[in-house]
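Today's session is about reading a structure prediction critically. Students often jump straight to the picture, but the first step is always the sequence itself: look for stretches that repeat, for charged clusters, for runs of hydrophobic residues. Only then move on to the predicted structure, which in these notes is written as discrete structure tokens rather than atom positions. Here is the chain we will use throughout the hour.
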Amino acid sequence: MAQAQSSTEAAPQAGEPAAAEIVVIGSQIKGANTAGALPVSLVGEEQIEAVAAVSGADLYRSIPQLGGVTFNEQVLGGGNANAARGDVSTVSLRGLGQGNTLLLINGRRTVLHPTSQAITGVVDSGVPTFGYNANTIPVGNIERVEVLRDGAAALYGSDAVAGVVNNVLQSDYKGAKFDVQYGGAEGTNLREFAANGLVGFDFDEGRGNISIFGGYAQKSKLYLSDQDYTASVDRRGYVAGTSFANVAAWNGTSTSTPWGTFRVVRPGGGANFLNQTLTSNGTAFTNSSGQFHIQPSANAGCRIASGTPDTCYDDGNGATEMSGADSNLRFNSPATFDDLTAQPSVKRINIFSYINYELSDALSFFGEVGFYRGKTSSTIGAPGSLANIPITVAANAYWNPLGPVGSPNRLPGLDLSVVPAEGLPVQITSLSYVDVGSRKVDVTNYQYRFLGGLRGSIGDFDWESAGLYTWATAKDTQENFSNTLLQQAINKTTPDAYNPFNGGCVDTPSIGDCTPNSQSTIDSFMIEATRKTRTSLALWDFKVSNANLLGLWADNSIGVAAGIEWRRETYHDNRSTYQGGIAGVDTTYTDAVTGVFYGSDLGGASPSPDVRGKRNVKSAYAELAIPIFSPEMEIPMFRRLNFQVAGRYEDYSDVGSVAKPKVAGSWELLEGMMLRGSWSQGFRAPNLEVINTSTLDRVNGGFDYVLCEADARSGRATNFSSAVCNVSVLRRSGGNPNLKPEESTSWSFGAVLSPKLGDGLGKVTFTVDRWKIQQKNVVGLLDYQNALNLDYLLRTQGSSNPNVIRRDPTADDIARVAGTGLAPVGELLYVVANFQNLLPVTVQGIDFNLDYFLPTTSVGTFSLNVNASRLISYYVDAPAGVQQVIAGQAAGEINAGVPIQGGGDVIGRDGQPRWRLSATFDWSLGPWKIGAFTQYIDSVYENGVRDASANPWTVKGQTTVNLYGQYTFKNDGPLNGTTVQIGARNIFDKDPPLASGGYLSNLYQPQARYWYTSLKKVF
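Below is the predicted structure for this chain, in token form.
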């Protein structure tokens, strides 16, 4: 592994001096005298114990420099496998995104998690991003975690823009130790069990060692119904009486509802609508666009009775109202299904083995074998239709209210000149198939690691070479419906046809004796869709180092390291045959009534083609350690002065080549007082998906603010913030083989203070580091919401955004803007947003670390570690389109309440808290030990949740505390070496701070006070 010595930021262990030398990742020169030149945080067994970490997610969330986690087990990706679901958690130093932090195991790369995720964030918004799965790390076998909080591309290559997280495993162990832990969260269904074992032994008279670790963890489901703030998506009660009482964001109920909305289709083929009002016995029941919906008869506005008892038809789309007579049409999924999961059940296996063998005095063999399996099961809500992939009800379908003359469900008194005797087709605009019920999503992740190498020495040179092959797979299986089979079930001409016009027969007093769809009918269109992804990494390297290459003076020597590396990366995304949407290859969907080909046959999912990508990377690096002064020279104010100079060249088979340097130095003025600093450049290659994917469609929720503006101007809404203009947005993107690597420049400078405290007073070390990272050519896209915001601005100026594609305005669209001064706005079809290299992102902050260790006294041994990180600024240079919107808002051309993403300083926005802090304390006396861990996360604001005065909602900061106590038996009996521990996470039982979505999943977990007990045995 990469090595250097550090004695400044080691997490002190009980009974061990805090100044013990620990090998860390700041240099590739073995034994180089570069102590403390780079900022490194070490997380040792004390913090792992205090956190009671069962997974990598538990552990990494406790490190302040690791920002929000957007890849986590709480993400379900809308139920359509377009996200990294399952037992997954990633790391993001400085909040720069998962792709900018390199994760290592024993100093070498590991493979990327095989499923990408298009996160909604500051930098990577909407871009498929890969990360390293922290849950594949065997936490029970971690000796320590080394966090290099500095750009390290010159040493480690791509992805090390924000820094490196190296997981040092116990790989040369003698003896055996086992532990089990059981815990659960109060008032919830969450229960967790973990068991670990490590066995190591020497052989061949101590020339070799084999260490084998095995870990198993099992966690039950945490349900949305377990917490009040997730049990319902209608959270208006939390803000009643505040300025946010009427803000739409607090009502998360969906317009995709069992109270379906429909639109009449013109006969003759194609998706052409009959844009005129239809009447039944002279009563109009559609609007001028031929749109109508079903609702309870008790609701105001009923036009005519429907075929289902106690329901009726009304014109237009009724589920858009946030309040008022039709607000009960909106769907509250968690309140309907009590088995929906906030976190899935997990079964995790980690196995890691290590072998060392001395072939001779100057040559050794080493090897690693790793295996991980994580299996999760979650439950999501009922599926719904997708606006861009509609289902059309045939004219002769049994339940069609516009069916042929003689049909039992044809509405009475239809005008034959408009609705002919053979009937008219009806297209489902919006409908949630609630009677399908909740659905299972099962995800199984595997990861394998095989490494073998040789290391030795020739004279003063140490050398090492290894070959690594590691790969990861993910299998994501979900229950869903087939569009083709559903349409066939709907378009039957017999009573066993699926009825989409019955309000779902939901359990509500508004409906009488509704005839539900039979289970056999529902089963006829249900399928299992499976997506399989795979990533692999093959790597070979050779490196050599010499800490004493060239003698200088006073025993100072220049150290050198150099190396070459070759790696091959692959990515395969095998989409479900129902979602690929390629005619002749996949199970595709063509509307049998209109003849329109839509591709994806997976319910509620846009077409997603398979993706294949691969690249070869050749690299070379060199490093010099240059000591100028040492204590033996006795030069005033220059006790030590050391410099590090490094550079790396990498050549990619697909995006070209880059070369980046690094310079660092440390200046120890006096014993216990040192200054340090570094400057480096870094890079990240565009990932294989954004380069190799073809056209990619994604559907997200958004806001068409020009409609809010029209409603506010016309008086239909009280004000802009209470207007309802949320829409389903289809974003159409495509891979770009001409993308350039992202490049970065970073610097840091700081001080290390470790004054002598005198005999018996222990040891204290305080560090402070100021840092800055600037990225350019960041791969991104003009987010669909920003594109809609630009369209809003341009429409107030009399034009429009050509990347926002709409239908021609209907009569209703024209009526909506009448008298407002705005031009008619047609129905949104899709937004074009291609991947591109965007403008710079600059992040800067300051880190603090305090270590205090008090050796054994009459009242025990104490240690304290405090680690804090403060973001000073996080500035995103806005793309030209966003700058235009910002300028228009400043000029008053659009409403001040429109949240604008992607520009300016985003400190405190969503997942970017200004302060994060953690502290670990432990006390031990004889067999007794007490430990505590506390974590503070600063407040943030939700940029998309603003009141009528454009003030954003503040998600308050929070401090949580963990506490544990343990007793270790120390005698000659059978309990010798046995430790019993009892503890609690979040001992004061604090809920995560309230957000419009219940809580912010990238910062917090929905977990109540969690009690646990563990038993450990060392042989």
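Discussion point for the tutorial: The radius of gyration is 31 Å.
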